[in-house]
Write a structure and sequence with these properties.
This protein has 204 residues and is mainly alpha-helical. The protein is built from seven helices and no strands.
């Protein structure tokens, strides 16, 4: 089991133990866990596929793909919240996504910068584009990992999302992103991307 799956399992159990609401009213824990895992994977795949397509445009590919990934992240958060029955305003979700994304990008920006530089060199663009696809997959995957841990931390504190302002959520998201073992998360994300690539999912 991946550390992300472990994190989702822990988050669901912590929420159930918080006493605020039973998250399994509309389904059992294992089904919700599978649904969230599938949601994260599909959004990560979507970001990678979009990046691979955008990367075919010399020079502009990396910039376009970065924007695409940014949008995918907060849409993924909305989807996760929906599966859990959590209500969080649009502005707050986007603020959280921005705070987490800003930290995540530090670990994947190298591949994006390489794409910008190498895409101007004939014959090297395809290699750079592949690196960009991996970077965008990892960015979304890592952002999901951190968001799950953020929710777990909030539930453990005995609070609900309604108890926190947008600024408090942003601050907690930033703190969580800086406290995790990003290297470990990124390596796991890279392994998941490789699995998806080998299975042919990126050709959809």
């Amino acid at each position: 089991m991946s550390s992300l799956s472990n994190g989702i399992e822990m988050m669901l159990k912590t929420w159930a133990q918080s006493g605020f609401r039973n998250p399994f009213e509309s389904g059992d824990e294992s089904e919700i866990e599978k649904s969230i895992n599938a949601c994260i994977h599909s959004h990560s795949i979507g970001a990678a596929i979009s990046a691979l397509a955008a990367g075919l445009l010399p020079g502009a590919g990396a910039v376009v793909a970065t924007v695409i990934s940014g949008g995918v992240i907060w849409k993924m958060y909305f989807s996760i919240n929906s599966k859990l029955g959590l209500k969080l305003g649009d502005a707050t979700v986007k603020t959280v996504a921005s705070a987490i994304g800003a930290n995540v990008v530090q670990y994947v920006i190298g591949a994006i910068l390489i794409d910008v530089v190498l895409s101007f060199i004939p014959g090297v663009n395809l290699l750079a584009t592949a690196a960009l696809g991996a970077a965008c997959y990892v960015a979304v995957y890592a952002s999901a990992h951190i968001y799950i841990r953020l929710l777990t931390n909030i539930f453990k504190s005995g609070k609900t999302l309604d108890d926190l302002t947008a600024e408090e959520m942003r601050s907690k998201a930033d703190e969580m992103a800086k406290s995790v073992n990003m290297k470990e998360i990124v390596e796991e994300g890279k392994a998941k991307f490789k699995e998806a690539k080998n299975s042919g999912e990126l050709k959809k």
